[in-house]
DNA sequence: AGGAAAATTGAATCGTAAC
DNA sequence: GGTTACGATTCAATTTTCC
């Protein structure tokens, strides 16, 4: 672990570069391999604009056998690099994920979960010929059935408003300022993953100081999030433009403080804090008006900690779901309110609470 | 289609029984194959009660190769039985779905979507060692890449509050009265699928009168829902207890009325009416001036139903495309004209026509 | 400046009836 | 079966432009 090229983005072919790294040197691997999309013609939106699809050479394979051989090779190397108790995450779509999963099983990986990344804002199906392809799949696997892999259960539970994190994650695409762009203002990389996805992956399955490998680094999301979260990374990428941009991105990233990095202890569950306790304590007065990020819906806080909006009344979660028509809703992150002229998330109450243990309402 | 054992639950081994059915006889197939779950020992809840998992003999395979061979055999038969434009649905979990999907692709099936069934009430992860396994995956595939498969897009959109249906479906498990039970009140089948799931599958990909095959019929959900929705079924099951229960279940089921079975029709299935027929009937006089929404271009209606603008002459579609430089154009929604002081879309002619069948111009 | 309307965009395997 | 021409089809989130 001494001569590892830590916290670097290595330039080279993925398989070849992995071969130069020592056995059992990685605590975790995140891999976003080519999807082998096999797009045929150009696709237009109903307004006649052309969809900018993935037509890069790196996503072209002659046939399934060629793709499988490539997949088997890099996955075998990945398994060799993983520590005995390490885990690997591989992301894909229906075009390739079945081949990925089957080959992983054949190589001896032990699948722990398949995770569905439900996209908040997927591209629609413009021709009305299929269901909106609104998700991608992550396979999370241990090196083998006997691995004592790491899973930060309590941290995941805390991230999910104190109920077990499910295998379906609802996260937005990488857009706006987060998306890296070239000199012409066009997206640098066609498939840049959102930081929120890597954040959850790393928090779930690694600890501070762990070494994370990304064999298909691309725009460097894994590397950047590893640095932010106090993990080490080894990233591999072959395209010089991506490497240059990713290095600048990592450079600009700052590591969080140890305090911020202290995740929920795995031993015992932190007492769940009901929303109503904040109202009781006057930290959020009854009568306060909450609204969502877009200010499309609003509701008023009642003295018992319920929300009222029109004829509806319910918990912060129920009301968020009801007013948006969603099956469920995390009220802590859904609602916002105004405080000292600023708009703040409801979740700030819990954040501040955890830093001030004297106000324990457990 | 004459000697098919329609609307019966056949007793026998799945592959062998399929072999006796003729090529291209099934419009749709729904398959819920064994999951190859490799549960090591009993699973206990925190209160020490035993979780009633899948441990039936039919779900045991020696290794991946054995499972793959079985899978390849029944999927090959399924493909033979499918009509040219038929589709197949296969459901699985991370234990087996990657092998299913890869083999389907190898056999020539063309995947249309992978659908995530998000369970409203999944079993929690009692040990806290993984994410709650809260979904199963359905693979929806056509017989091949050139299939003109059926997808009732408008019906799915209507089911989803008029936004197109996504690839993630949120549906409850099969519980309560819907769950078949034996004489002891215990669940009859370990993996009985909810009727809502089959309802959506059948409404999405079949029409009234279609023939649906279920090679792993189990508790008969596919057969029951096919009968209710006016589809024919051929079901295969080898376990006598399941067959008996499923036959009684189907018997008790009633077919909905034709009225209740009417779904939102797709526009492309409504008979076409040539634009010229409206001119012939005088519903739109020759000489009428058409213009686009922004009144940027205009054209005059000729007696033969063509449009003229400057030196150009052509159909409503060709002219719309030509005058805007677009590669194609739907003239019906592109053009407007003035009627009784109001600006109306050209498409109003077809709308009014369909409401006044006496004006039949067929 | 501020608010409203318009434009942009995303890992996409995205026609078919009629002649 | 091949060819031609019709004509169906989009959601959410940002960002940019317009008033």
Automatic annotation (TrEMBL), chains A, B:
Protein keywords: DNA replication, DNA-binding, Methyltransferase, S-adenosyl-L-methionine, Transferase
GO biological process, one term: DNA replication
Residues in DNA methylase N-4/N-6 domain copies: 27-246
EC number: 2.1.1.-
InterPro entries linked to this entry: DNA_methylase_N4/N6, DNA_methylase_N6_adenine_CS, RAMA, RM_Methyltransferase, SAM-dependent_MTases_sf
GO molecular function annotation: DNA binding; N-methyltransferase activity; site-specific DNA-methyltransferase (adenine-specific) activity
Chain ranges of the RAMA domain: 262-352
The protein's enzyme class: transferase
Swiss-Prot/TrEMBL catalytic activity: a 2'-deoxyadenosine in DNA + S-adenosyl-L-methionine = an N(6)-methyl-2'-deoxyadenosine in DNA + S-adenosyl-L-homocysteine + H(+)
PROSITE patterns: N6_MTASE
Gene3D superfamilies registered for this protein in UniProt: Vaccinia Virus protein VP39
Family annotation (Pfam families): N6_N4_Mtase, RAMA
Family statement: Belongs to the N(4)/N(6)-methyltransferase family.
Name by which UniProt lists this protein: Methyltransferase
Lineage, uppermost ranks: Bacteria, Pseudomonadati, Pseudomonadota, Alphaproteobacteria, Acetobacterales
């Amino acid at each position: 672990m001494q001569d590892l090229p830590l916290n670097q983005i290595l330039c080279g072919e993925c398989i070849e570069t992995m071969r130069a790294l020592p056995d059992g040197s990685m605590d975790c691997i995140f891999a976003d391999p080519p999807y082998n999309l096999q797009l045929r013609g150009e696709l237009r939106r109903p307004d006649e604009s052309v969809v900018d699809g993935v037509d890069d050479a790196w996503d072209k394979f002659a046939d399934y056998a060629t793709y499988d051989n490539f997949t088997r090779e890099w996955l075998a190397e990945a398994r060799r690099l993983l520590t005995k108790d390490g885990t690997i995450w591989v992301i894909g779509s229906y075009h390739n994920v079945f081949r990925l999963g089957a080959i992983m099983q054949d190589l001896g990986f032990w699948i722990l979960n398949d995770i569905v990344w439900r996209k908040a804002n997927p591209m629609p199906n413009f021709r009305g010929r299929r269901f909106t392809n609104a998700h991608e799949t992550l396979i999370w696997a241990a090196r083998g059935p006997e691995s004592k892999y790491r899973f930060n259960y309590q941290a995941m539970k805390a991230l999910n408003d104190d109920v077990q994190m499910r295998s379906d994650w609802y996260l937005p695409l990488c857009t706006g300022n987060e998306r890296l762009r070239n000199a012409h203002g066009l997206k640098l990389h066609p498939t840049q993953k959102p930081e929120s996805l890597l954040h959850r992956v790393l928090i779930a399955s690694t600890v501070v100081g762990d070494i994370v490998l990304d064999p298909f680094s691309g725009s460097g999301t894994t590397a950047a999030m590893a640095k932010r979260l106090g993990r080490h990374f080894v990233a591999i990428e072959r395209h010089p433009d991506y490497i240059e941009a990713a290095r600048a991105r990592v450079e600009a990233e700052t590591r969080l403080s140890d305090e911020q990095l202290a995740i929920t202890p795995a031993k015992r569950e932190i007492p769940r804090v009901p929303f109503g306790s904040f109202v009781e304590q006057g930290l959020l007065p009854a009568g306060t008006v909450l609204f969502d990020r877009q200010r499309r819906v609003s509701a008023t806080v009642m003295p018992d900690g319920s929300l009222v909006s029109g004829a509806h009344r319910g918990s912060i979660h129920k009301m968020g779901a009801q007013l948006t028509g969603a099956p469920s809703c995390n009220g802590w992150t859904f609602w916002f309110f105004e405080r000292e002229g600023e708009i703040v998330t409801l979740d700030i109450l819990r954040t501040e609470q955890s830093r001030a243990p004297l106000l324990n309402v457990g």
